[in-house]
Design brief:
Blueprint lengths: L12 H7 L12 H11 L2 E4 L3 H15 L2 E4 L17 H6 L6 E5 L8 H14 L3 E4 L9 H4 L4 H5 L3 E4 L5 H5 L4 E6 L3 H10 L3 E4 L6 H6 L15 H12 L4 H17 L4 H18 L1
Parallel strand pairs: 1-2, 3-4, 3-6, 4-5, 6-7
Keywords: Transferase
Pfam families: UDPGT
Family: Belongs to the UDP-glycosyltransferase family.
């Protein structure tokens, strides 16, 4: 099943590994991919947690391939949290920093970096000479992020950077006035939250999700080599690209982000999708 008929998608080894779960056994003698394909072949309709404005072309292709209706739920975003970050211990650190000056980097629970890539990431943050907050899982083969830090790194950055391996209130951090850049692995949840609910600039370190950079053009992707590895220089370059006020690329992606946020935050946009989705389900039952 090729989901992109007009686009040749070449995955690096590290990206391919993230999709390898599709071919793991899920039940006796059946892979996840086989279950998905059979389900989409035998069902009456296919539901997609997205909106036509952003992934309509993809939905149309799926509908054509499987010869059945595709129903859109919309992004299904959480209600904005009313309580500020003040109750969290990070608030004291952020409050003393300039508005829009902090780089926040978070990769969620699924993406665990190799130790070498983790070190390139934090060295790139240091190279950018901007205050930063990193929330990631300990790199592979290590017990903690502190154990994996490059030699002398902690002493050099001191209070300018915080690196945590625990849960943090991501949406509240992204909404904080001091945060100006979000370095994301482009997981589906963070994609929608950062696009629709926050104003900070985006730097994309995608594993296998090309939508943000190639289609929506709301942030630059960190350049990788032929093996899918990124360097500290390219991490720094991407961050500087969006944080530099005189950057043409930064202005371009910021304006695109603003436009998409305006669309997604239009009153009734999300609720209308949910209402239409429910009506379409009722329509299927009535047939």
């Amino acid at each position: 099943m090729n989901c992109y008929p007009s686009t040749t998608v070449v995955l690096h080894e590290c990206e391919a590994k993230l999709l390898s779960f599709l071919f793991h056994e899920y039940g006796k003698g059946v892979t996840i991919y086989e279950r998905l394909k059979k389900g989409m072949t035998l069902c009456d309709a296919i539901a997609m947690k997205t909106c036509r404005e952003i992934e309509g072309t993809f939905g149309d292709y799926i509908s054509t391939q499987f010869k059945k209706a595709v129903l859109y739920t919309g992004p299904v975003l959480p209600e904005p949290e009313k309580e500020p970050l003040e109750e969290h211990r990070l608030s004291n650190w952020l409050e003393f920093l300039e508005p829009g000056s902090v780089v926040f980097c978070a990769f969620g629970s699924q993406l665990i970096l190799e130790k070498k890539q983790f070190q390139e990431l934090v060295l790139g943050l240091e190279l950018a000479n901007l205050p930063f907050l990193v929330a990631v899982k300990p790199p592979k083969g290590t017990n903690s992020v502190e154990e994996a830090l490059p030699e002398g790194f902690k002493e050099r950055v001191q209070e300018k950077g915080l690196i945590l391996d625990c849960w943090v209130p991501q949406l509240k951090i992204l909404s904080h006035k001091s945060v100006g850049c979000f370095v994301s692995h482009c997981g589906y949840g963070p994609v929608w939250e950062s696009l629709a609910m926050c104003d900070c600039q985006l730097v994309l370190l995608p594993s296998a999700y090309w939508l943000m950079e190639q289609e929506l053009k709301v942030g630059p992707e960190v350049e990788k080599d032929e093996n899918g590895w990124f360097s500290k220089e390219n991490i720094c370059k991407a961050m500087k690209c969006v944080m530099d006020k005189d950057s043409q690329v930064g202005c371009f992606v910021k304006e695109n982000h603003r436009k998409w946020k305006e669309v997604l935050s239009t009153p009734g946009f999300i609720s209308n999708y949910i209402d239409n989705f429910i009506q379409n389900l009722h329509g299927l039952l009535a047939e």
